[in-house]
Amino acid sequence: MTRRRLGRGLGDLGATPFASPPLAKPELTLVQDYGGGGSGRRPVSICVTSGKGGTGKSVLPSNLAVHLAAAGLKVVAVDADMGLANLHLLLGMQPRRTVMEVIESGATLEEVAETGPLGLRLAAGASGRPDMADLHPARLSRLVAALDAEGDRAEVVLVDTGAGIGRSTTSFLYALGEIVVVTTPDLTAMTDGYAVIKNVAHNNPSARICVVVNRAKSAVEGLEVFGKIDRVSQRFLRRPLFYLGHVLNDARVGASVASRIPIILNQPAAPASACLRGVGRTLLIEIDRRRAAMDGPGIPPGGSPVVAPEGGPECA
Ligand SMILES: Nc1ncnc2c1ncn2[C@@H]1O[C@H](COP(=O)(O)OP(=O)(O)OP(=O)(O)O)[C@@H](O)[C@H]1O
Ligand SMILES: [Mg+2]
């Protein structure tokens, strides 16, 4: 009965022993100069999401935006957790404008975005507005279109969404080319994460679906969790997933959230910071691949898997 309710494949997550196929080592390439500032290129838009709430979705983009900005990319973070936005808190910002203006009065992202750490830009979300939590997709399409229009000013747009498959989240899940699903090793987070993956696989066939395992006890546990989800996805959806890496469970993450400074800035030596830099490095490779694919024949969206480069001793 549980199986029927969860859908094909979901029940396997709890039972499948880890036996993921050997992972190929990625070719490391340099991120190119993407020629922002009038080039007419589209930005790489990355949607960070999860099935279950509280998995660390917002911790990820707040730190990854800083990492990508530190690498020299023009980054815009967009808080699309409609009605319950908090990315600005994690970045220590007090924005005056929000993406509501994009949706309601046709403002551009550039107009509402404000500058944060390392020059990254944040288009903040609205909080405490129940009407924002269930916007009609037609209204959200303005915001989705505004992401692409950032091409002249941003090389990467990182979108933080709410959890689950409500229509305010699926507007982004179905439209963007890179979907990053954040899960923890908890069975419920994995199961709900797979439900999101299944949804994206059916409704956004050309998207690359990446996974980050947050709050892992070790690199091995991260790989085990990824392997389980990837096996189920390959078997039932015929979709390989792409592993961006793991982030260790680290009490210092909670402390950095409380201090409103991304952990890679205020505690760079923390184990979680090392992991976040590892995920950031892999994401840079992914961004480079996407740009190459946009520019020419390149690598198709479902091309060879991206796996985290060896984290080295700093991220065990
Ligand atoms: N790697 C980690 N180690 C320890 N604690 C963590 C880690 N990642 C996240 N947390 C804790 O989990 C809390 C929730 O994280 P976050 O706000 O990013 O989740 P979320 O998925 O965005 O939640 P929501 O679904 O409500 O948007 C953080 O405030 C932090 O205390
Ligand atoms: Mg969040």
Strand count: 8
Termini separation (Å)? 39 Å
N-to-C order of helices and strands: HHEHEHHHEEHHEHEHEHEHHH
Structural class: alpha/beta
CATH superfamily, called what?
P-loop containing nucleotide triphosphate hydrolases
Strand content: 5-15%
> What hetero molecules are bound to the protein chains?
adenosine-5'-triphosphate, magnesium ion
Compute the average pLDDT.
84
Compute the number of helices.
Answer: 14
Shape: globular
CATH architecture: 3-Layer(aba) Sandwich
Record the strand order, biggest sheet.
3-4-2-5-1-6-7-8
Task: Give a brief description.
The chain is α/β, with parallel strands linked by helices and 316 residues long.
Please give a structural write-up:
The protein is α/β, with parallel strands linked by helices and 316 residues long. It has one domain (44-295): 3-Layer(aba) Sandwich (Rossmann fold), CATH 3.40.50. It has helices spanning 2-6, 12-15, 59-70, 87-90, 100-105, 109-112, 130-133, 137-148, 167-173, 187-203, 219-237, 251-259, 263-266, 271-295, and strands at residues 44-49, 75-80, 114-115, 121-123, 156-161, 178-183, 208-216, 242-248. It has an eight-stranded mixed β-sheet with strand order 3-4-2-5-1-6-7-8, sandwiched between helices. Strand 3 (114-115) and strand 4 form a beta hairpin. Helix 10 (187-203) packs across helix 11. Residues 50, 53-59, 81, 163, 214-215, 247, 249-250, 253-254, 257, 272 line the site of adenosine-5'-triphosphate.
